[in-house]
Amino acid sequence: MSTHPVPTYTPGYSPGAVRFMARRTAATHAHFLLPHLTTGTRLLDLGCGPGTVTVGLAEVVAPGRVVGVDAAAGQAETARAHAERCGAGNVEFESGDAAALRFGPGAFDAVFAHALFEHLPDPLAVAREAYRVLAPSGVVGVCSPDWDGFLLAPADPRADAAVAAYRTVQTRAGGDTGAGRKLAGWLLGAGFTRVTTGAWYECYPDRKRIAEYLAARLDRETDTAFSGLGDGLRAWADAPGALFAQAWVWAVGHRPA
């Protein structure tokens, strides 16, 4: 049984939040790992969510075995249904603790985690677990946002207040909105070598989509200090030419041979 703290997923699992996550694909959100994958690679996706990225990765490595793990059983069920619709026969999904995986040492050739480490109370423990289940010469690829790098325009105190409030919510839940720039350090601390990093921006042409995603979470807060902040962000998103650019940082590391 795991003795690690249970992570809290700040966005939650509302239908809107799940639809937002389901827009992600291997091409858009796992591009940094794709050059390291080949046919037959055994791959583990930690924090797989609704499985859209996982299924894309399964297509790349087929017939290699792919396993998606998520802390929420409902997410694993959603991902399983998506895989069935896509006819992906080499992928399976289950609920589990990323810090205490059931797999033996060397069970996988690649471990992937997108938008997971920023929610973890003990990221280093999960990095070490990824190292444990990787075979020698295996590769890990992780990606998390770094909120200090977000770009919002035009400048608006309502948007600034809403973003600051969301960061507070995530911090209170045990997460780290500055996780992106720390990924390489966690991988190195877990024993990975040849660690490389990079960053990219995800721009939302429909900024109302990301605004609603964040605002809906703020609406659920009972703290009166958050009252009206979600509506303020929604109003900002209506501004002509508004820009919301989300900063993502990725890190790739290798287990020594």
UniProtKB/TrEMBL annotation:
Keywords: Transferase
A molecular-function term among this protein's GO annotations: transferase activity
Gene3D superfamilies for this protein: Vaccinia Virus protein VP39
Top-rank taxon, per record: Bacteria
Domain Methyltransferase, first and last residues per copy: 44-138
Pfam family, one: Methyltransf_25
InterPro entries documented for this protein: Methyltransf_25, SAM-dependent_MTases_sf
Name the record gives this protein: Methyltransferase domain-containing protein
